[in-house]
Amino acid sequence: MKRILVPTDFSEHAEDALKIAAQIAKKINCEIFLLHMLELPSQMSDAISGGSGIPEVMLFIKKANETFQKIKERPYLNGISVTETVHFERASNGILAFSKKNKIDLIVMGSHGSSGIEELLIGSNTEKVVRLSDTPVLVIKKDIGKFEGKNFVFASDFSNEIKKPFKKMIEFIKIFDANLFLVMICTPNSFKTTLTGEKLMHEFIADFDIQNYSLHIFNDANVENGILNFSNSINADLIGLCTHGRTGLAHFFNRSISEDLVNHAIKPVITFKI
User: Which domains does the chain have, with CATH numbers?
Assistant: First the structure.
């Protein structure tokens, strides 16, 4: 891992994410990219693309650069290479495009989450990035101080399609020398006997050379509650899982557990796209 992207709207939540990104960067000696997206009215965007300098836009850019300079002076960024960029694009689209173009290895984002009708109708930029990013996304919901990452929960159905993103997850947990808790959540709608679940998990893990792990079957009313309740029961530092990246109607009718957890979990969540 060489490059970490931290999108920022200069909010408290974005700074919480930057603090965690800084801790990771210091552990593995990597670079941080700070990205601020300016979503402008269409007429302003057209003027910029045509080379015109609109005073309002120039003011936005100036203010963003001034804020970047203040952020780069934060003590927790000492010794880290930080590159700042301002882009004019819709936030989620711009983040995804920047990540791909600059070969980002990890995106760290802050999120306040959403609920009720707001969550159903629009969701958050963080949620959209989680759903669509090919790069792993680490979502931070609050200032958690020192990020240990020692107890890592990875929840899955342990099907064959999970094996590729699982390899990325293994590389990530090596940063923290974490204890890996692999958990299968069984619900009334997706019930498996303990013997069946354990057999699936043992067959899955046999293809990987990992240590410091344990296998768990956890029963709950639904998958999301199961992941949250199990994570709380072992005092997890981080929750990991995979997302399918559904779009359109498929996404509307089959909301991703990953996105729901991003909205509702207090603990940090990292997602890996299948």
Answer: 3-140 (3.40.50.620), 151-273 (3.40.50.620)
Return the residue matching tokens 């995804």: 96
Report residue 156 as tokens.
């899955």
Q: Using CA atoms of 199, 204, 210, 212 in order, give the dihedral in degrees to the nearest 10.
A: -40
Ordered mean pLDDT values, 10 residues apiece, the chain (274 residues): 94 94 95 89 52 69 92 96 91 93 96 50 70 93 88 94 92 90 93 92 94 95 93 95 63 56 85 90
Please name the residues in contact with 100: beta carbons below 8 A apart, sequence gap of 6 or more.
Answer: 134, 135
Lookup result for tokens 């203040």: 70
Q: How far apart are the first and last CA of the chain?
A: 19
Rg (CA), the chain: 20
Please name the residues in contact with 164: beta carbons below 8 A apart, sequence gap of 6 or more.
Answer: 274
pLDDT at position 116 is 43
Residues in the chain: 274
Q: Are 15 and 73 in contact (CB under 8 A)?
A: no
**How many other β-carbons are positioned within 10 Å of the β-carbon of residue 56?**
10
